[in-house]
Write a structure and sequence with these properties.
This protein has about 240 residues and is an alpha/beta fold. The chain has a domain of about 160 residues: Rossmann fold (3-Layer(aba) Sandwich), CATH 3.40.50. It has 7 helices and 7 strands. Bound molecules: S-adenosylmethionine (SAM). S-adenosylmethionine binds next to helix 1 and strand 2.
């Protein structure tokens, strides 16, 4: 597939990736490691985001600035797709379809990420899982793309997960990383398991919001894999357009 915008515009620069719904940059870091120049956008300030960052509504920013980039990643909040909503009677915005519409209007290669319970909303998503990348978390996430993405082979789930909030043990070496009032030791261990050292608690210090950030994140290894293939896809599109 080729795209209406000639990308990259200067052939010797790093391609630019727009990281929508960025939080503290779990996804963004993987794209950076894959060779992208990453810019994040989130509705809330993200002081721990490691790259250029803008505070804005994701769809509004995409409409206003999307064409300044070569590719877009979007991680709309997943709460709308949680089965727990049937019990807690809360309502959350359903952003996957509006985000897809905005991405199609821009016409760049895109990635839309979400949780497994959002599968009915996503078009032929690839599933990624921690052991595909040597991680000690299962953390299934789905990735819809408008270009061809294949997941690595999916290893069996043979290791046991420790309960959320507890540190791993030799018998239960995998972590479950979801919200809660967890210890600093747990936060740092979770950051190691996810590959997010920049939001670890420094000795004697604190990282505000770090627990929420690690619990919301995609492991950078997932987007490193995606970004490596996206980079190749963009290079092929540029060659085809030349
Ligand atoms: C699941 S987190 C994204 C995690 C991120 N991809 C990562 O790997 O670290 C979703 C984020 O969307 C942000 N958000 C919610 N509504 C938004 C909106 N309308 N525009 C931009 N960001 C929004 C939240 O503040 C939150 O940080």
């Amino acid at each position: 597939m080729t795209y209406p915008i000639p990308i990259p515009r200067e052939r010797d620069r790093r391609p630019r990736l727009l990281d929508l719904f960025s939080c503290a940059g779990g996804a963004g870091m993987g794209y950076h490691q894959a060779g992208f120049d990453v810019t994040g956008v989130d509705i809330h300030p993200q002081p721990n985001y490691p790259f250029t960052h803008h505070v804005a509504d994701a769809i509004a920013y995409l409409h206003a600035h999307g064409r300044e980039y070569d590719a877009v990643h979007a991680s709309p909040p997943c709460q709308h797709y949680s089965p727990l909503n049937a019990y807690n009677h809360k309502t959350y915005p359903d952003l996957i379809a509006p985000v897809r519409d905005a991405l199609n209007a821009i016409g760049l290669p895109y990635v839309i990420e979400n949780v497994e319970t959002a599968a009915p909303e996503l078009r032929q998503p690839a599933l990624l899982c921690g052991p595909m990348f040597g991680l000690r978390v299962y953390r299934h996430r789905l990735f819809e793309t408008n270009w061809s993405l294949t997941a690595p082979a999916h290893p069996g789930h043979t290791a046991t997960c420790v309960r959320n909030g507890y540190l791993p043990t030799p018998d239960r070496p995998f972590m479950t990383i979801t919200g809660g009032r967890h210890s600093r030791a747990w936060q740092n261990t979770a950051c190691d398991a996810m590959g997010m050292p920049w939001i670890k608690v420094p000795p004697g210090g604190d990282i505000p919001r770090g627990i929420r950030e690690v619990c919301e994140a995609i492991p950078p290894a997932y987007t490193h894999w995606i970004g490596t293939h996206l980079h190749a896809h963009i290079a092929t599109s540029v060659e085809a357009a030349a």
